DNA sequence: TGCCTTCCTGGCAGTTAATGCCAAGTAGGC
DNA sequence: GCCTACTTGGCATTAACTGCCAGGAAGGCA
């Protein structure tokens, strides 16, 4: 059994992560080098790259797990529920499963104020966005005219993520004082309510 | 007058661009090095970096000009026009001002299949998005209840770009056989038409 | 306890993108 | 024909990665 290895690996990952996030917050992402993180975390540069494939993964590495959770949650919503409501439910679950709010806020700020990081983050997200499309498509086709369900599903997923992104940016801008789910609802309402 | 300089610069830029895009198409983006492009274009590596700040700019470098055009076009739409229609008009203008379709298709495919390129592209797009928000906000406030116009404007802009992105990806996937503007309209309809 | 397999770790060298610096060249004004 | 402005290319350097190899620790087995 590799239990000990796994456990010490977890500890190491957490220690590196804490060091990295602290340094990023102190001196900015671009100004912090891998060498410095490795030194302060007491690990070799080479091993750091084995834990985290890239520097960006230090910030947005665990997005994959959240993407998986989102997909599963949306799938498990009752069959009658609309695609929009199912996605909204999934978003809610991911929110509660995420980092503690303080840390999430710190990470969000870092991502939003570092253009290259933000772009990478969105790019990663786009990958699991694609996996969500078939799940959403399964909830369409009820309406009378349902032209090009694939196009429809992609557009819906893309829009939901655009709103999540916008809401998160506003949330970080307000230092987390406004409820994130409320902001998301406002964004979606601005888009879907015809004026 | 720096006319001669400007002109020879234009020529040089085009020659480098052609070389780069050809090599990217032949052997892929990651597999092509700056050294190779410089060598085949008959220019020093140092100068190449002066023409194009980064390797990514060889592919999505002229996006800035399009962003400017988009913003100006949206601004100049008649005052009564809704934000959605103004953005749609801007999109249309950008489409016609873009590369010839064949080249645009090649570039789009390259961007969508190369993660680092796509990230860079997103990063650039996020910048115009931010600049468009005040322009769009100026077209709101007409409705009866207009809560948080900033949130509203951001959500609208983000959604429009999400639909542009989705439409472009579908367009590239269909080898440009389906009209891009039509795809965009379908995406937006899927989002805004309550079912 | 001693050996062996397996996996992890660190160091070293090398690649690639990107930046700063400085010397050499070239266009245009006087 | 000189002087200034601007460009170009070569050199050195940095930072993110990657491949390779030697050394070491964990766990199984006699």
TrEMBL record, chains A, B:
Residues 10-70 form the HTH tetR-type domain. Residues 33-52 bind DNA. The keyword Cytoplasm does not apply. Pfam families: TetR_C_14, TetR_N. InterPro entries: DNA-bd_HTH_TetR-type_CS, Homeodomain-like_sf, HTH-type_TetR-like_transc_reg, HTH_TetR, MftR_C. Keywords: DNA-binding, Transcription, Transcription regulation. PANTHER family: HTH-TYPE TRANSCRIPTIONAL REGULATOR RUTR, MYCOFACTOCIN BIOSYNTHESIS TRANSCRIPTIONAL REGULATOR MFTR-RELATED. This is TetR/AcrR family transcriptional regulator. The lineage of its organism: Bacteria, Bacillati, Actinomycetota, Actinomycetes, Kitasatosporales.
């Amino acid at each position: 059994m590799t239990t000990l290895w796994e456990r010490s690996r977890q500890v190491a990952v957490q220690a590196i992560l804490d060091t990295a996030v602290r340094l990023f917050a102190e001196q900015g992402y671009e100004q912090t080098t891998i060498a410095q993180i490795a030194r302060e975390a007491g690990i070799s540069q080479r091993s750091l790259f084995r834990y985290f494939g890239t520097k960006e993964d230090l910030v947005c590495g665990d997005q994959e797990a959240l993407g998986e959770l989102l997909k599963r949650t949306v799938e498990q919503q009752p069959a009658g529920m609309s695609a929009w409501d199912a996605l909204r439910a999934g978003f809610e679950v991911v929110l509660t499963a995420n980092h503690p709010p303080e840390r999430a806020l710190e990470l969000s700020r870092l991502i939003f104020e570092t253009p290259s990081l933000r772009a990478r983050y969105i790019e990663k997200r786009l990958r699991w966005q694609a996996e969500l499309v078939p799940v959403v498509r399964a909830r369409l086709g009820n309406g009378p005219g349902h032209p090009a369900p694939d196009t429809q599903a992609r557009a819906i997923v893309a829009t939901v993520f655009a709103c999540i992104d916008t809401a998160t940016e506003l949330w970080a801008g307000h230092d987390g004082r406004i409820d994130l789910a409320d902001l998301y609802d406002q964004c979606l309402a601005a888009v879907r309510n015809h004026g």
